[in-house]
Amino acid sequence: MGKLQEFNITFDKNKDVYNPGESITGNVSIKLGQLLQCKAIKVNCNGFCGITSKVNDTAWTVEEQYFNSTISVADKGTLKEGEHTFPFKFLIPETAPTSFEGNYGRIIYRVRVFIDTPRFSKDYNTEKPFYLLRLLNLNEVPDIWEPSTSAVTQQFTYMLVKTGTVVLKAQTDMKGYTQGQIIKVLAQIHNQSGKSTGNMAASLMQRVTYETKRPTHDVRTIAEVEGGVVKAGKESEWKEQIIVPPLPQSSLIGCELIKMDYYVKVCLKSPDVMLMLPIHIGNISLDKKLRSSKKASAACSAAAEDTQASASPPSDSTTNPNLPPRPAPKPGPRPTPRSRASSHNPPSAPPADLPQGAEGGTPMNDGFPNKRQSQLVSPNAFSYAPGLFFGGNQQHNGPSTVPPGSTGATAPYPTENSASLMPTPLILPPDYGASAYPQEAPPSYDDSYNT
């Protein structure tokens, strides 16, 4: 090399892969065999995308610049014989896309050093590439947990006259994968023809699109698995797995000239039936815990919405004028007064107050069933009182004896599922018209209780 015996670029910690937003630091090492006149020593860091129309050509027809920074580490002067070291530091923008190398284009990042010498002297330069990795988190891709599905129906002609139909349906277990994961493919084939199909095949495909005036599509097969045939008039289900090899990520975010897509192609060799299942290849795999938490939060929010929707306003008529007011409960009939001379057990609670216009002991025909008329009463539940009669040998639904002084005939209460039970007559109020003491009023409830 003459005067320049060593001219190298080294990165700190020998690191050559960086992330957007990081700083790249390093040193420029120069070893001279004799004095060297220089105008300046400059260090440049840049990143760009270049596209060409020929395979593996570096004469770019279209370029896209991401960043280009230059610093001067030495001014005009003379470098003495020996070793010299010049440090540098650059900040990588957060919008820079991932490094990529394809047949018709590349995304390149590099550090270059220039030694500018006086006129008629030789200039020196060197460069060292580094790689940028912008991680693609599959958990941030929408609907990534859903399967990728597709279906196609193909009609074809065989034996020059006959026609047939093949229905092909296929799906993957989800839409996002990383290196080393397994793509589970499920295909269903219904051969509605009289001819057996060719072998089934599933392939992991990569399609790179280079955006120029006439876009170039570079499609290649990454991996392929093959299955059997489907006989005439039969329906078959095929399950297969594809292991994801090391691949660039699906989305080159920040690059407008190169687009990358991955998909699983499921096809039949004969007839020509094919469908595509789009998928994503990323750097950060799917987290099942995040999926369960999202499901739980979605379920909680749905339950909260249902609760709010089903919540009804208070049933009070004052707060909601649309609801009709509830009728007041009807009071029960007042018990039959008893004679002061009769011996009986005192009631356990006073009866409800009678409404105005109702007579004591008389059932009111107001459309509501009378509680006393709707229950069975045992003859031994009460002691004797005037007007209360229990026949000893009465037959069910038979005539009953009316005691003297009664206001009318008594009708027995209906019995439940048994004719042997003794029918219980109605409890009628006594007739005070034939009383021996017409000057005395009928005893009140309080008087009867006190007695």
Question: How would you characterize the overall build of this protein?
Answer:
This protein is mainly beta and 451 residues long. It contains 2 helices and 20 strands. It has helices spanning 288-310, 445-450, and strands at 4-11, 17-18, 23-32, 36-38, 40-51, 62-74, 77-79, 82-91, 100-101, 105-116, 124-132, 149-158, 162-172, 176-177, 182-192, 200-210, 216-226, 235-243, 258-268, 273-281. Strands 2, 5, 6, 9, 10 and 11 form a 6-stranded mixed β-sheet that branches. A 5-stranded mixed β-sheet has the order 14-20-19-16-17, with no helix packed on it. A 4-stranded antiparallel β-sheet has the order 12-13-15-18, with no helix packed on it. The protein is flat. The chain starts with a strand and ends with a helix. 19% of the residues are buried.
Q: Largest sheet, described in full?
A: 6 strands, mixed
Low-confidence stretches: 312-321, 338-425
What is the β-strand count?
Answer: 20
Instruction: Kindly state the percentage of residues in helix.
Output: under 10%
What is the element string, with H for helices and E for strands?
EEEEEEEEEEEEEEEEEEEEHH
The geometry reads as flat
CATH topology of the domain at 140-281: Immunoglobulin-like
Helical segment tally? Answer: 2
Global structural class: mainly beta
Report the CATH architecture of the domain at 140-281.
Sandwich
Q: Which strand-content bin applies to the residues?
A: 35-45%
CATH class (first level) name of the domain at 140-281:
Mainly Beta
Q: How far do the termini sit from each other? A: 138 Å
- What integer is the average pLDDT? 77
- What kind of oligomer do you see? single chain
Radius of gyration: 50 Å
